[in-house]
Amino acid sequence: xxxxxxxxxxxxxxxxxxxxxxxxxxxxxxxxxxxxxxxxxxxxxxxxxxxxxxxxxxxxxxxxxxxxxxxxxxxxxxxxxxxxxxxxxxxxxxxxxxxxxxxxxxxxxxxxxxxxxxxxxxxxxxxxxxxxxxxxxxxxxxxxxxxxxxxxxxxxxxxxxxxxxxxxxxxxxxxxxxxxxxxxxxxxxxxxxxxxxxxxxxxxxxxxxxxxxxxxxxxxxxxxxxxxxxxxxxxxxxxxxxxxx
Length: 245
Fold this sequence. Notes:
Elements: H1 2-14, H2 17-43, E1 54-55, E2 61-62, H3 92-104, H4 106-118, H5 123-141, H6 148-163, H7 168-175, H8 180-184, H9 186-203, H10 205-219
Antiparallel strand pairs: 1-2
Helix pairs in contact: 3-4, 3-10, 4-5, 4-10, 6-9, 9-10
């Protein structure tokens, strides 16, 4: 009798509908635990901005620039520093204009570059006039343009960061392998590049302005020629009133 009772109780437990529900509940609990563990691992990852990462067009550190996790490298300038005219393309006429302005009226070229870079009409005079004053004072007291580069070199840094262009240290490291220690650390590299921007404007001021002008004119339109939306009114077609049958 006892064995029969035990067999009946086992049959009742196996045929009980609550058994399947309990198993399903345990499976769901395990799935939730796995999802929570994955969420905690993803949340614990820190965004690193130290050495080994690139810089974005806005000058901010880039965490993962490619699919494999390698940093995105900077692109070279459209034209070299010591050239009068850039590439033989549709901007060739503009390059000649830039070369003439850089040689005879660098204040006009600098104001035009800043105006295009800021994409705000009216900034030309705000930068051209101070540059002209520093240009005249430097040539009058020191015999050469020694003050204006202190005022204009931040524009070169802004152009590099906006278009993600390589600086002098990175270009030297790519061509001849020097300045490798400065390129490895991002913060140190950016400080070195800013110093190189200043030195470029001091010793090759006209060439630096022309290179920046060629780069900007190929990538940014003049603010005055920005197309504006036009509202076109289309009259309705002819309407005829039909007669009922």
